[in-house]
Design goal:
alpha+beta; six-stranded antiparallel beta sheet; 13 strands; rod-shaped; binds adenosine-5'-diphosphate
C-alpha cells in the first residue's frame, strides 16, 4: 500500500518535473495540442465523411481561429505576460468551438463536446473558482444557443434538453476537475511540508552526528559501538590509536582499514592479566559485549612490551524500544599509569612488610623465651609480657597478610586441578572452627571438577571465603559450598546464613582494610585484607568474584574460574 503510494508520488513528481522544464510556450502549446489534433483529424476526415461542412463559412472561420490559436500558443512570449495571460487561449477556444459546432450543424451536432478541453484547462488552472465555473457553464450554453434559437418557434423538449445537457455536463466536469486539483494541491502542500520536515530532521541529525563525533574524538577513552551482529557502527580516534598501537609491528601501519579484514594477525593483540597469555577470542571485550554481557573494570593488556598498555574495559548493552538487545557500547580506558602505581605501591608494601617481619620475629621469639621461665617473673610482668606477645603476634599476622596481599597476584602457577579436592580439603581444615561456632558445613560439588588454576592460591582463596562464612555466622547456621561447570567456566559459590551486610557495604568489601559496621560492632577479629587478597588471586586467574548479601540474612560469594584448560586452549 505504502509502496504504491510512493510510486504514484514518484510518477506525479517526474511528470511535474518534465512539464516544468518545458518552458511557458511549449507548456501552453501542449495544453492546446489535444484540441488541435482533433480539429486536424476532423478536417482530414471531413471531405469524405461530411463534405457539406467544408462549404460552411462559419466552419472555415472556426478552423482559421483554431489555427491562429495554436500558432499564438507557440509564438506569444507568455513568459513576459502575467501568469494568467495564457487563459485567454481556452476562453477563445470556447468561441472557436462555438463557431465549429454551429458551422458544422446539422451534419456534426456533437462538436460541442470539444468544450471539455478548454473547460478542463480553465478548471485546472489557478484562476478564481467562481470565474472558471461560470465560464465552464455559460461557454457551452452560448455554444448551443444559436441552434436552439434557430428552431424557434418549433422548439421540442428534446432540443431544450440537448441545449441544457452540454453546459450541465461541462459544469460537472469543471467541478470534478476543481475538486481533484484542490485535493492535489493540498496533497502537494502536505508533501512539501513533509519534505521540509525531513530536510530539517536530516540537518538536525547531521548536526548531532557532527557533535557526537567531535565529542567522541575529544575524549581520551576509546569507544566502539557495535550492532547486535557485532558489526562495528562507530569507533573513535582514541580507539583506533589503541588498536593500531596494539597490532603486531608489521600490521601497525595498516591503520583503521584493516578492521574489516578481520584476520587474526591484523587484529590488535589483547593479553590477559598475566600480560603474556593472549586473550581467548570469546573473552575479547567486544565479543563479550555482543553476547549481551554487561561488565565494568575488566582489565586487559593491549599489545606487547615495551608499548604494552593496561586498559580497563566496560560494556553496556543498547536496548531497542521493546527492551531487546540491539547492540552494545564498549569503552576502553588506559589505566597503565594507575596499574603501574599500584604495582609500585604493592612492591613497596611487600618490601616494608618483609623488613618488619625479621625484627617482629625476634621480638616474639625473645618474648617466648622470657615467658618460658614464668616462675622467675612476677604475675604482673607475665600479664604484661603476654599482652605484648599477643599484640606482637597480631602485628606479625597483619604484616604477613600485607605481604601476601602485595604478592598474591605476582606468583600464580596454574595447572589442571580438581576443584572438588580443593573444596574437600578446605572444608576439612575449617571443620574445627565450624564446630566451635556451631556452624554446619555442607558441600555440593561434583567430583572430579577440573579447573585450570594454581591449587595453592585457589586453596588460599577458598579458605578465606569458608573461614569468613563461618566467622560472620556468629549465631551458628549453615554454610554451603557448591560448584558447577558451565560454558568453559566453573562457578563456585560459598553461601552462608550469617549476619550479612547492607548493599553499600557489599560494594566495598573487596577494598583493603574495609570492615562492615556489624563485624566491627560484634568484635569479630579481622583486619579487612582477606577478601582483597582473594579477589586479586581470582582475577589473576582470569576469573571473577562477586558477592550478594542481605543484612541479617546471609551472604553468597560467587567465583568464576576457567575450566579444565587454559582459556586459550580448546
Ligand atoms: P576480615 O574478615 O579480616 O575483616 P575480609 O577482607 O575477609 O577481612 O572481609 C572484609 C569484610 O567483609 C569483613 O570485615 C566483613 O565485614 C565482611 N565480610 C566478609 N565475608 C563476610 C560474610 N561471609 N558475611 C558477612 N560479612 C562478611
Amino acid at each position: 500500500m505504502q509502496n504504491k503510494e510512493s510510486s504514484d508520488r514518484l510518477i506525479a513528481r517526474t511528470v511535474d518535473r518534465y512539464f516544468r522544464r518545458l518552458g511557458p510556450r511549449a507548456q501552453v502549446a501542449l495544453c492546446q495540442l489535444p484540441l488541435t489534433v482533433i480539429i486536424v483529424a476532423l478536417v482530414i476526415a471531413a471531405p469524405a465523411a461530411w463534405p457539406a461542412v467544408l462549404a460552411s463559412e462559419l466552419f472555415i472561420a472556426s478552423l482559421v481561429l483554431h489555427a491562429l490559436l495554436f500558432a499564438a500558443c507557440l509564438l506569444v512570449p507568455w513568459e513576459r505576460l502575467g501568469p494568467h495571460a495564457q487563459l485567454v487561449i481556452p476562453i477563445l477556444d470556447l468561441i472557436a468551438i462555438g463557431l465549429s459546432r454551429n458551422g458544422a450543424a446539422p451534419n456534426l451536432q456533437g462538436l460541442g463536446v470539444l468544450a471539455i478541453f478548454p473547460v478542463i484547462w480553465l478548471s485546472a488552472s489557478g484562476m478564481a473558482a467562481k470565474t472558471s465555473i461560470i465560464l465552464s457553464f455559460f461557454g457551452p450554453v452560448v455554444i448551443g444557443l444559436p441552434s436552439l434559437l434557430a428552431k424557434i418557434p418549433n422548439v421540442t423538449p428534446a432540443d431544450i434538453t440537448t441545449a441544457v445537457l452540454l453546459p450541465v455536463m461541462m459544469l460537472a466536469v469543471a467541478l470534478a476537475v476543481r475538486f481533484a486539483s484542490v485535493n492535489m494541491r493540498l496533497q502537494q502542500r502536505r508533501l512539501e511540508a513533509q519534505d521540509a520536515e525531513m530536510r530539517n530532521l536530516l540537518a538536525e541529525s547531521k548536526e548531532r552526528e557532527r557533535l557526537l563525533h567531535t565529542i567522541l574524538d575529544t575524549v581520551d577513552v576509546g569507544i566502539i559501538a557495535v550492532d547486535a551482529d557485532g558489526k562495528v557502527l562507530l569507533v573513535n580516534d582514541q580507539q583506533n590509536h589503541f588498536e593500531s598501537a596494539a597490532r603486531p609491528a608489521d600490521h601497525a601501519q595498516l591503520g583503521d582499514g584493516s578492521r574489516q579484514n578481520n584476520e587474526d594477525e591484523t587484529q590488535p593483540l589483547l593479553l590477559s592479566q598475566d600480560r603474556k597469555t593472549p586473550l581467548p577470542p570469546d573473552r575479547h571485550p567486544v565479543k563479550r559485549a555482543v553476547r549481551g554481557e554487561t561488565f565494568a573494570d575488566h582489565l586487559v593488556w593491549f599489545g606487547e612490551s615495551p608499548r604494552q598498555r593496561a586498559v580497563s574495559t566496560a560494556a553496556r548493552a543498547i536496548r531497542n524500544d521493546d527492551g531487546g538487545f540491539d547492540g552494545a557500547v564498549v569503552v576502553f580506558n588506559d589505566v597503565t599509569g594507575l596499574v603501574e602505581a599500584i604495582s609500585a605501591k604493592d612492591e613497596f608494601v611487600a618490601n616494608v612488610s618483609h623488613e618488619f617481619r625479621t625484627p617482629l620475629n625476634a621480638v616474639i621469639g625473645n618474648l617466648d623465651l622470657v615467658l618460658e621461665d614464668e616462675e622467675a617473673l612476677s604475675p604482673l610482668a607475665v600479664e604484661r609480657l603476654e599482652v605484648a606477645q599477643r599484640n606482637a603476634e597480631r602485628l606479625l599476622a597483619l604484616v604477613s597478610d600485607l605481604l601476601v596481599s602485595a604478592s598474591a597476584a605476582a606468583s600464580i602457577y596454574p595447572r589442571k586441578t580438581d576443584l572438588a579436592g580443593l573444596v574437600e580439603s578446605s572444608i576439612g581444615s575449617a571443620h574445627l572452627h565450624a564446630e566451635r561456632s556451631k556452624v554446619e558445613l555442607d558441600t555440593d560439588v561434583p567430583a572430579p571438577l577440573w579447573v585450570h588454576v594454581d591449587p595453592l592460591r585457589i586453596g588460599q582463596a577458598l579458605d578465606n571465603l569458608v573461614s569468613n562464612a563461618i566467622k560472620y555466622s556468629p549465631d551458628g547456621g549453615h554454610v554451603k559450598v557448591s560448584a558447577r561447570s558451565e560454558k568453559g567456566w566453573v562457578r563456585l559459590q560459598v553461601q552462608d546464613a550469617g549476619m550479612g551486610m547492607t548493599e553499600a557495604e557489599t560494594s566495598r568489601i573487596f577494598t583493603r582494610f574495609y570492615r562492615s559496621a556489624a563485624a566491627k560492632e560484634a568484635s569479630i577479629p579481622g583486619v579487612g585484607l582477606g577478601l582483597s587478597i582473594t579477589k586479586a588471586i581470582v582475577e589473576r586467574h582470569g576469573g571473577q568474584i562477586s558477592c550478594t548479601s542481605q543484612l541479617g540474612a546471609g551472604s553468597t560469594f560467587t567465583v568464576a574460574l576457567p575450566a579444565d584448560g587454559p582459556p586459550s586452549q580448546p
